[in-house]
């Protein structure tokens, strides 16, 4: 599917460009928020203003915070059926294949257009079991107790400049609560769409998987191409309670003018399992290092990350895992493909606290270079303050093997086909973890992008 | 007709082939023998269009189409198949997927395309001939396969693509007797069925137990020094390559 198209629609609310106290107050007023949330936002704004831009990593100097829209509302209230969604927006999601996916293989869907969730649904039997799947704004109004217990507890506003920004102007995102021992068999999907140029999207996602529950959450992101900077600065917080398991899958395909600066963090209790499956194909710059805090004994964490950087793209991604309890294990598998003059970087940290025992960790990062000018960087850090640890690390950077290309060509495959197969083989360890429909789409996106990119 | 005319080629500026001439007609089986380093494998590489093997003079044509300057894809699509001495491992790529793409690219004998379901059935039929299990077809292309498995996979690929001319580069190395029988049984079968030109490159005489050539060529130092029938093999067995009288 092609995601590069613009939807013509007149917003019902569009705050002026730029960020100041009044912007924050307006957002909070429009949402009828309790006063504690307004205070939270204002404090976060002060933190954002006080914090410097990160001095490491990709160049972010082209982001002009005064030239962004911080809040756009395209319809007055969220709808429960596609029929009620304004035709222009509905068509947008039709073209992206969302309603069809919802019918065929999802437990529930949420669609965010600019700042607000415009559509949400959840299968009835899950609702009856007590599963909550709503936009985060509604959750603040409807479930204040559970909301306040978890909100901003994994990612405090002061964590970094962009988590502070998100905390000040957050809007939309998913709120999920899965009751004890409820297993949500099919994925819940959220779809994030930026439509306006110079848009800032700041959704906030909060997932709580109660004891012994299971959920697979999938998010997809796209935007049309504008050659005008847009910013996506989300915060995602996940709480995996005892014995629960959460898999969070991202397929990010922003257009090449979006700065994608996202903070994702998960706290994992005893015997819980957290899995990040993070695929980054689009955006101008992505900085994202999903982290996992293994807080309870027997907890397990896994980050599977895939980055594809073509000309003009900088994918700075990785993962962080903190072993804070004994008998915990973790694995990071990072695969990156750089084409043209694309830059991909793996930046990772595994930290094992003192006094914890029986810890296992394994980090594998493999980079594949397709073009003569493409770049792959690897910055793996493993800090071990305990003795009872088994740690493994492997890092490779390679080019497409000429002998492999030749071999496939002697079977009668074209050079492009041969390279396509070699690249899809390279990413297969990640692709096979995706739901089948997404794996197919991923391979198709790469195929389109790589045509003729053999260096 | 696969026609090789006065072929010279070099690798890293070192001349390896120094004027090779021979012609394979459909239905013929040729064996090329020669000591290590005589240029046999380079000949296979040159015919298939391997990058780095530079053709400095001469020509190669398939059924009248000059392929001297064509890439390996074009050569394969015209019906040439090379079974590798050391097949490459392609991690993460399933044998059946790669082979279906290849099958649907070829333009001989027709440009018939097979859907995944139909191709699967066709592939299974061919695999059965070689005693290859279904699970092998789902595996990745040569990834982690034993030497024998890789060779069988090459022959399976050959059967599936049903080329017009095949070059088997040291196909007998790494195979036990049972596997050899199966592989050459399959080669004989396709030789009998279609008008296929077969070139077997080897330095083992034992191959004659399994296949009867129409022609035997002896290659020494980049040239075919002698051609003849299978009786040539007898001479080598008795006296080695040095004793071959090239003046005859």
TrEMBL record, chain A:
Residues of the SUF system FeS cluster assembly SufBD N-terminal domain: 83-189
Matches recorded under SUPFAM superfamilies: Stabilizer of iron transporter SufD
GO biological process: one example: iron-sulfur cluster assembly
Domain SUF system FeS cluster assembly SufBD core: 192-426
Pfam families, A to Z: SUFBD_core, SufBD_N
Sequence similarity: Belongs to the iron-sulfur cluster assembly SufBD family.
Name the UniProt record assigns to this protein: Fe-S cluster assembly protein SufB
Organism field: candidate division WWE3 bacterium CG08_land_8_20_14_0_20_40_13
TrEMBL record, chain B:
Source taxon at top rank: Bacteria
Entries under SUPFAM superfamilies matching the protein: P-loop containing nucleoside triphosphate hydrolases
Keyword presence, Thylakoid: no
UniProt GO MF annotations: ATP binding; ATP hydrolysis activity
Record key words, sorted: ATP-binding, Nucleotide-binding
Record-annotated ABC transporter domain positions: 2-246
Pfam families given in the database record: ABC_tran
Family: Belongs to the ABC transporter superfamily. Ycf16 family.
Protein name, as recorded: Fe-S cluster assembly ATPase SufC
Record organism: candidate division WWE3 bacterium CG08_land_8_20_14_0_20_40_13
């Amino acid at each position: 599917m092609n995601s590069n198209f613009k939807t013509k629609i007149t917003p019902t609310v569009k705050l002026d460009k730029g960020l100041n106290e009044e912007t924050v107050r307006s957002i909070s007023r429009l949402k009828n928020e309790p006063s504690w949330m307004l205070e939270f936002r204002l404090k976060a704004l002060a933190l954002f203003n006080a914090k410097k831009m990160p001095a490491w990593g990709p160049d972010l100097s082209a982001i002009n915070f005064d030239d962004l829209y911080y809040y756009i509302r395209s319809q007055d209230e969220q709808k429960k059926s596609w029929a009620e969604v304004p035709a222009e927006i509905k068509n947008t999601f039709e073209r992206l294949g969302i309603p069809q996916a919802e019918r065929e293989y999802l437990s529930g869907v949420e669609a965010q257009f600019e700042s607000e969730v415009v559509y949400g649904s959840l299968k009835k039997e899950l609702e009856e079991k007590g599963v909550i799947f709503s936009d985060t704004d509604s959750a603040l109004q409807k479930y204040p107790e559970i909301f306040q217990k978890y909100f901003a507890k994994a990612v405090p506003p002061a964590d970094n400049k962009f988590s502070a920004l998100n905390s000040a102007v957050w809007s939309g995102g998913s709120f999920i609560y899965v009751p004890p021992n409820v297993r949500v068999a099919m994925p819940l999907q959220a779809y994030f769409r930026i439509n306006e140029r110079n848009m800032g999207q700041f959704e906030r996602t909060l997932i709580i998987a109660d004891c012994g529950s299971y959920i697979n959450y999938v998010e997809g992101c796209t935007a049309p191409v504008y050659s005008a900077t847009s910013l996506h600065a989300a915060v995602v917080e996940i709480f995996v309670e005892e014995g629960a398991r959460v898999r969070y899958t991202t397929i990010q395909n922003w257009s090449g003018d979006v700065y994608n600066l996202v903070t994702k963090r998960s706290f994992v209790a005893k015997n819980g399992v957290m899995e990040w499956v993070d695929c980054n194909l689009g955006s101008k710059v992505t900085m994202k290092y999903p982290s996992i805090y293994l807080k309870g004994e027997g907890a397990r964490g896994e980050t599977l990350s895939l980055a594809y950087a073509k000309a003009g793209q900088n994918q700075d991604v990785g993962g962080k895992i903190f072993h804070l309890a004994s008998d915990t294990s973790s694995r990071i598998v990072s695969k990156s493909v750089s084409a043209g003059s694309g830059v991909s970087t793996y930046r990772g940290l595994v930290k094992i606290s003192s006094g914890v025992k029986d810890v296992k960790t394994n980090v594998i990062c493999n980079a594949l270079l397709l073009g003569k000018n493409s770049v792959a960087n690897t910055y793996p850090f493993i800090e071990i303050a305990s003795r009872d640890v088994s740690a493994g690390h492997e890092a490779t950077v390679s080019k497409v093997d000429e002998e492999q290309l030749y071999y496939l060509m002697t079977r009668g495959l074209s050079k492009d086909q041969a390279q396509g197969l070699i690249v899809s083989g390279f990413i297969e360890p990640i692709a096979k973890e995706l739901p089948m429909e997404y794996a197919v789409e991923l391979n198709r996106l790469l195929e389109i992008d790589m045509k003729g990119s053999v260096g | 007709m696969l026609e090789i005319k006065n072929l010279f080629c070099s690798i890293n500026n070192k001349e390896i082939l120094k004027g090779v001439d021979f012609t394979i007609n459909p239905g013929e089986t040729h064996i090329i023998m020669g000591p290590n380093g005589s240029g046999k494998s380079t000949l296979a590489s040159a015919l298939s269009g391997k990058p780095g093997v530079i053709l400095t003079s001469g020509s190669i044509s398939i059924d009248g189409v000059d392929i001297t300057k064509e890439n390996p894809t074009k050569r394969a699509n015209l019906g040439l198949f090379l079974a590798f001495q050391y097949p490459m491992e392609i991690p993460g790529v399933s044998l059946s997927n790669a082979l279906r793409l290849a099958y649907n690219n070829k333009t001989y004998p027709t440009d018939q395309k097979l859907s995944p379901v139909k191709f699967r059935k066709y592939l299974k039929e061919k695999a059965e001939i070689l005693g290859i299990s279904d699970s092998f077809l789902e595996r990745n292309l040569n990834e982690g396969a034993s030497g024998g498995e890789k060779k069988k996979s090459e022959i399976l690929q050959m059967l599936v693509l049903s080329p017009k001319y095949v070059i088997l580069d040291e196909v007998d190395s790494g195979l036990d007797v049972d596997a050899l029988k199966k592989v050459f049984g399959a080669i004989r079968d396709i030789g009998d069925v279609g008008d296929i030109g077969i070139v077997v490159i080897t330095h083992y005489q034992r191959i004659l137990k399994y296949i009867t050539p129409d022609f035997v060529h002896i290659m020494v130092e980049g040239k075919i020094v002698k051609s003849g029938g299978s009786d040539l093999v007898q001479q080598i067995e008795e006296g080695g390559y040095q004793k071959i009288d090239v003046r005859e």
